[in-house]
Design brief:
6 strands; single chain; globular; Leucine Aminopeptidase, subunit E, domain 1; alpha/beta; six-stranded mixed beta sheet
């Protein structure tokens, strides 16, 4: 795990990671935290996916959202991975995402062959440690 003081926007702009993980709750709209920031950065793409029913936030859901980088010579699409965090119940539930979601996320990261991924500690909380444990070979950048 590689803790960094860079913001998610700075990491994306620098092409340091291949994908970024965002957590979305099924009963919390508008999006909060990193999902809100990246939705704004990528011109409402997560809101668009939500309105079409492609993202619900249900625990265990994992959705790949490919995005073409603007003003970049890199032709490979950037990847946002939206993981369902279940129902938001109280401030304490924001400290982790359900175990099912972590397991699905790990499986998908490994199957996609992603080598460098960004995760926000404020989004995934203590789940970051569980995610790191079984994803050997994947460089994980953790933002505050």
């Amino acid at each position: 795990m590689k803790p960094t003081e860079l913001s998610p926007e700075e990491i994306i702009a620098s092409s340091e990671v291949d994908a970024f993980v965002v957590a979305v709750y099924e009963n919390m709209r508008p999006f909060r935290g990193l999902a809100f920031r990246l939705d704004w950065r990528f011109r409402g793409i997560l809101t668009n996916y939500y309105q079409k029913g492609l993202i619900t936030g249900v625990a265990g859901e994992c959705t790949l959202v490919p995005i073409q980088r603007a003003n970049s010579s890199d032709t490979a699409p950037y990847k946002l991975i939206v993981v369902g965090a279940g129902k938001f119940q109280d401030a304490d539930s924001k400290n982790h995402i359900p175990h099912d979601s972590v397991e699905v996320l790990k499986k998908n990261i490994l199957k996609l062959g992603i080598k460098k991924i960004g995760i926000s500690k404020s989004d995934l909380g203590t789940s970051v440690d569980a995610f790191d444990k079984d994803t050997k070979g994947v460089e994980i950048w953790v933002t505050p």
